[in-house]
Design brief:
By secondary structure, the protein is α/β, with parallel strands linked by helices. Helix content is 45%, strand content 16%. It folds into four domains: 169 residues, Beta-Lactamase; 242 residues, Glucose Oxidase, domain 1 (3-Layer(bba) Sandwich), CATH 3.50.30.10; 138 residues, TIM Barrel; 135 residues, Alpha-Beta Barrel (TIM Barrel), CATH 3.20.20. The protein contains 30 helices and 22 strands. The longest helix is centred in the first third of the chain and has 24 residues. The termini are far apart. The structure holds phosphoenolpyruvate (PEP) and magnesium ion.
C-alpha cells in the first residue's frame, strides 16, 4: 500500500468534512465520498451497500463498478462477501476475493476484473446498517492500518446515512430509518398496565454522531476534561463504602482505576484525535481495537480485564458531555426504561415516582424482575427483541402492557387509540373495585380464598383496595434485596410486625429467605455456579449457614409476639430438610418464651416447588400444618425448563395433562390428610389457569394484587362442579396442551376469563 493511504486519513478526513458540511442531495454526497475514498486509498473501486428492510444490502454508490448496478445489485445478509461482512459485523481483507467460497458474482457490476477486496461493516448503535468495500485489480495485501482507516471512514459514512434527508429520500426502514419513523414492536406482557413516557436506556450506548473534528485542539481538551471527570468518579466509587460491599466489586473498581490512569490507553485516544477524529470517535476507535483484541485472547482473566476496559470506555464517553450517564434517582418525569434484561434489585434501584414502565429485550413472566414489577404496579413488556435496535434515548414511547406491544414515536392516531385503552382499563379497574367487598363465591356456592402475594412495604398500601383474604405469600427476600447491608434482627422484626399490623385479623404467610439462583444479595458472598437454579439457594443456604435463617426466624417470632405466626420454607426437596428447619424455629420460639414473649399460635408449612417432595406427600403431610404450591419453580423443575430463559419458557404448557395430573395428586393427598393447600405461583393469578386449579380441587389461591379482580370475576361466573368434571377428563388426555379445550369450555359456560 502506498504511503498515501497510511498517512492519508487526515487528508481524507479533511476532504470528507467538507462534503459532510456541504449542501445537496445525500445520495450524491455519498457518491462523492466513495470517489474520495477510492482515490485516497489508491483503490480502483469503492462501493457502499446499505441495508434495507428484509435484511437486504443494496448497492447505493460506487466508484469503479458499473453505475447501472446502483440500486440493482442486492445481496441478502449472509450472501456473498458483502453479506458475510454484514452478517458477522467484522471487516474482511482478501488478496484473492474470487477464490473465496463465499464469493457471489454479480455480472451487472463488472467486478470480475478486481481481485483483492477490503470491506468493513458500517455500524450505528452497534447494528450493521451497511457495508463499505474497496477493491483492487492486483492481488493486494491490505495492512492493519488500511483496515483501521476504512473502519474509521465507515463511521463517517454512518453519520451521513443517518441524516434525516437520506432516510426520508430512500426509506431505509431497516437501517437508520428506525430511529425516526414510528414503529410498533411486539413482545410479551410481563407486568400488566399502560404507560407513556420517554425512553431512557438502561445500558447507555456509544453513538458517535460526529466523526470528524472541526478543531483538533478543542477535541483534545474535551477528552482531557472527560478523563479527569472519569478518574474522579472512579476514585469516588472506590471510596464509597456502600458500593464496595463485596470484594468482587472492589476488584473491578481497582481495575477501573488502573485503566483510568493508564497512560498508553490515553495516548492511543489522543493519537486518534490527532488524525482528525472527534473525541467520541477516538474513544470508539480505540474501543473497537480493544474489542478486536479481546476476540483473540483466550485467557479468561485478561478477557475479563479487557471487558472492564470496554465498560470504562462507555463511561468515559458519557463523561464527555459532563453527564456521567443516567442518574437512577433523577429520572425524567415519565420514564420508560429500555433494557436488555434487568435484575429485580436493579429495578428497585430506580426512582419509583418517575419510572412508568419497562421494556426488556429478554425477560420472562416468572422472572423476579417481573414479579417485583407487578408488585410495584410498573407495566413491563418483555421479549421485545427489536427494541434495542429501534429506540433512541428520549424517544416518545407507549407501552401497552395488556397486549404486549410497544409503540415508538407514535403518530396522533395511535396516541388517541392508546388513550382510549387507558380509559377502558380505568373502567375495568372500577368494575373490579366494585367487586372488592363481594365474596369469591361460585355459582354453585363454593367459596374460594383469594390471597395476595407481597414482599415490599408498598404492597401493603394496596392491601385494602385489593380485597384479599390475607397474604398467601410474603416473599421476605425482597426486603433483603433492596438493601446494601444485611438488615439486623430488630429491623426485620419491625418490618414483619408492620405487615402483621396491616393485615389485622387476616392471615399472613411469611416465607423464609429464598435467595440464590437469580436472587442475589449484594452483601452475601456466593460462588459462581454452573446451574444456579439447581444450586445453593433458599433452604439449602438456610440449613448450611443457620445463622442467617436463625436471625430471620428470631425476627419473625419476635414480631408475632402474642399473635399467630404462620411461616413456610422454600425449596424443600426432602422431608428431613423441613424437620431440620422446623427444629430451628422451635428453638427460637422456646428462647422467646423463656423471655416471656413468643407467638400465641404457630403454623409451619412448606412450599411445594421440587418434584421430589411430591413423591413424599403422605410423609410430608404428617409433619406440616399447610402447604403451598410454588408452580413457578415446580414447573421449572418438572419440565427441566429454566424459568428465566425466554428461549424455552413457552415450550411447555402448565395446562398439560402431565402437569395437571401432578397438581391433582397434590390436591387430593392434601384433602385426604385434611391439610390446607393453596397455590401461590404465577398461574394462580391467571383466570384460565385459576379456573383449572379450581377444577383440580384447589380452593385457596394467592396472587399479585392486580390479578385478584379478574380471578374473582371468573370465580363468580363459574360453576365449579362442572369445571371439576371437565378437568378430570383432561388429566387423562394425551395432548401436550389442554389450553384450547379449557378456553372453549369457559366460553361455552360463560365463564369470564
Ligand atoms: C414459585 O416458585 O412458584 C414461587 C411462588 O416462588 P418464587 O416465584 O419466589 O420463586
Ligand atoms: Mg419459588
Amino acid at each position: 500500500m502506498s504511503s498515501a493511504a497510511v498517512s492519508g486519513p487526515r487528508i481524507l478526513f479533511r476532504q470528507l468534512r467538507r462534503v459532510m458540511a456541504g449542501q445537496g442531495d445525500a445520495e450524491l454526497r455519498l457518491q462523492t465520498i466513495v470517489g474520495l475514498i477510492a482515490s485516497n486509498m489508491i483503490a480502483e473501486v469503492c462501493s457502499c451497500y446499505l441495508r434495507r428492510a428484509g435484511d437486504v444490502l443494496e448497492l447505493f454508490a460506487t466508484e469503479g463498478l458499473n453505475k447501472e448496478a446502483v440500486h440493482r445489485t442486492r445481496l441478502r445478509v449472509g450472501e456473498g462477501l458483502v453479506g458475510d461482512i454484514a452478517a458477522h459485523a467484522r471487516p474482511l481483507a482478501l488478496s484473492d476475493a474470487q477464490s473465496h467460497p463465499q464469493f457471489a458474482y454479480r455480472p451487472e457490476t463488472g467486478e470480475d476484473k478486481y481481485h483483492s477486496l477490503l470491506g468493513t461493516p458500517i455500524l450505528r448503535g452497534g447494528r450493521v446498517i451497511g457495508v463499505l468495500v474497496v477493491q483492487n485489480r492486483t492481488m493486494r495485501h491490505y495492512t492493519e492500518e488500511e483496515i483501521e482507516a476504512l473502519q474509521t471512514v465507515a463511521m463517517v459514512v454512518a453519520e451521513l446515512i443517518s441524516s434525516e434527508e437520506m432516510i426520508s429520500s430512500k426509506e431505509l426502514l431497516d437501517t437508520a430509518g428506525n430511529a425516526t419513523l414510528p414503529h410498533r414492536l411486539s413482545g410479551r406482557v410481563l407486568a400488566e398496565g399502560l404507560a407513556t413516557g420517554q425512553a431512557v436506556l438502561h445500558e447507555p450506548r456509544i453513538e458517535v454522531r460526529k466523526t470528524i473534528a472541526d478543531n483538533i485542539a478543542e477535541e483534545l481538551d474535551r477528552l482531557k476534561g472527560a478523563i479527569s471527570r472519569l478518574q474522579s468518579s472512579v476514585d469516588e466509587m472506590l471510596n464509597n463504602s456502600d458500593a464496595m460491599v463485596s470484594e468482587e466489586s472492589r476488584d473491578i473498581f481497582e481495575a477501573y482505576k488502573m485503566f483510568a490512569h493508564d497512560k498508553s490507553w490515553l495516548k492511543k485516544m489522543e493519537a486518534a484525535i490527532e488524525t482528525g477524529l472527534t473525541a467520541e470517535a477516538a474513544i470508539k476507535r480505540v474501543q473497537d481495537d480493544t474489542r478486536a483484541r479481546m476476540k483473540q485472547i483466550t485467557d479468561p482473566y485478561i478477557r475479563e480485564r479487557l471487558s472492564d476496559l470496554e465498560d470504562l470506555a462507555n463511561r468515559l464517553y458519557l463523561h464527555l458531555d459532563g453527564s456521567g450517564g443516567i442518574d437512577r434517582h433523577h429520572l425524567p418525569d415519565d420514564t420508560i426504561i429500555i433494557a436488555q434484561n434487568m435484575s429485580a434489585a436493579e429495578l428497585l434501584d430506580y426512582d419509583r415516582v418517575h419510572l412508568k414502565a419497562v421494556v426488556l429485550v429478554e425477560g420472562t413472566r416468572s422472572s423476579h424482575v417481573a414479579i417485583v414489577a407487578r408488585a410495584l404496579g410498573v407495566p413491563v413488556v418483555g421479549q421485545c427483541h427489536e427494541v434495542s435496535d429501534s429506540v433512541e434515548q428520549g424517544d416518545f414511547v407507549l407501552v401497552d402492557g395488556e397486549n404486549g406491544q410497544v409503540f415508538l414515536r407514535p403518530g396522533d392516531d395511535v396516541v388517541q387509540a392508546f388513550n382510549r385503552s387507558v380509559r377502558h382499563r380505568e373502567e375495568r379497574q372500577a368494575k373490579y373495585a366494585a367487586l372488592r367487598t363481594k365474596d369469591a363465591i361460585s355459582k354453585d356456592k363454593q367459596l374460594v380464598g383469594l390471597h395476595m402475594n407481597a414482599g415490599l412495604l408498598i404492597d401493603l398500601d394496596h392491601f385494602e383496595e385489593a380485597g384479599a383474604d390475607g397474604i398467601g405469600l410474603f416473599r421476605t427476600e425482597l426486603q433483603f434485596m433492596v438493601r446494601s447491608k444485611m438488615p439486623k434482627v430488630d429491623e426485620q422484626a419491625e418490618l414483619y410486625a408492620k405487615v402483621l399490623d396491616k393485615a389485622g385479623s387476616r392471615p399472613v404467610i411469611f416465607r423464609t429467605l429464598d435467595v440464590g439462583g437469580d436472587k442475589a444479595l449484594p452483601y452475601l458472598k456466593m460462588k459462581e455456579e454452573e446451574n444456579p437454579a439447581l444450586g445453593w439457594r433458599a433452604i439449602r443456604i438456610g440449613l448450611d449457614r443457620p445463622a442467617l435463617l436463625k436471625s430471620q426466624l428470631r425476627a419473625m417470632v419476635r414480631a408475632a409476639s402474642g399473635r399467630t405466626l404462620t411461616l413456610m420454607f422454600p425449596m424443600i426437596a426432602e422431608v428431613s430438610e423441613f424437620i431440620e428447619a422446623k427444629a430451628l424455629l422451635m428453638k427460637e420460639i422456646e428462647r422467646e418464651k423463656s423471655r416471656g414473649g413468643g407467638p400465641k399460635n404457630v403454623k409451619v408449612g412448606t412450599m411445594i416447588e421440587v418434584p421430589s417432595i411430591v413423591w413424599q406427600m403422605p410423609h410430608l403431610l404428617r409433619e406440616v400444618d399447610f402447604v403451598s404450591v410454588g408452580s413457578n419453580d415446580l414447573m421449572q423443575f418438572f419440565y427441566a425448563v429454566d424459568r428465566g430463559n425466554s428461549m424455552v419458557t413457552d415450550r411447555y404448557d402448565m395446562l398439560s395433562s402431565s402437569f395437571l395430573t401432578m397438581l391433582q395428586y397434590i390436591a387430593a393427598e392434601c384433602a385426604k390428610a385434611k391439610i390446607p393447600v393453596s397455590v401461590c405461583g404465577d398461574v394462580a393469578g391467571k383466570p384460565l389457569e385459576a379456573m383449572t386449579l379450581l377444577g383440580l380441587g384447589y380452593r385457596s389461591l394467592s396472587m399479585s394484587m392486580e390479578a385478584i379482580g379478574p380471578v374473582k370475576e371468573m370465580i363468580r361466573s363459574s360453576d365449579i362442579s362442572k369445571v371439576q368434571e371437565f378437568t378430570a377428563k383432561l388429566c387423562r388426555s394425551k395432548d401436550a396442551s389442554a389450553r384450547e379445550q379449557l378456553r372453549a369450555f369457559a366460553r361455552d359456560h360463560s365463564i369470564i376469563i
